[in-house]
Description:
146 residues; alpha+beta; 6 helices; 12% strand
Amino acid sequence: MYKSVSELVDLIFAYYPKIRKMFRNLVSIKDIPISLTQLTCLHVLEQNDRLSMTELADSLCMSNQQLTKLVDALVDYGMVERVCDPQNRRKFYAELSPKGKELLASLKQEVDRKMGHVLRKKSPDEIDNLYDNIAHVMSYFGYKEE
């Protein structure tokens, strides 16, 4: 039996809050109340070294105005630095600070530890299957494994 796009949307809407809640509970850095969007921003910067604010906004599918607030908070935490373009003083880049790199690595270790706890009763084959399925779903949205 074939499923309709509407049924797929219903499934996504049903499970998204549960997935978000699980990751929300995984995300915590000491006294820094980091959001999932901020975490995504840090990860995008880690993957790209340095991005203009427009490039970063496009990567996160948000407006420059929304991004400014997000980056301001990360700058306040000392996790991101704004760097002025020497050829165009009106253009800024965002990049991870050394503290941001350290905190992101620490956060990834914590997420790894907590995810390991969640999956502790699963066999290596089940974890591989989960990985393959998530990668497959992500391929529909432009994700390509490196």
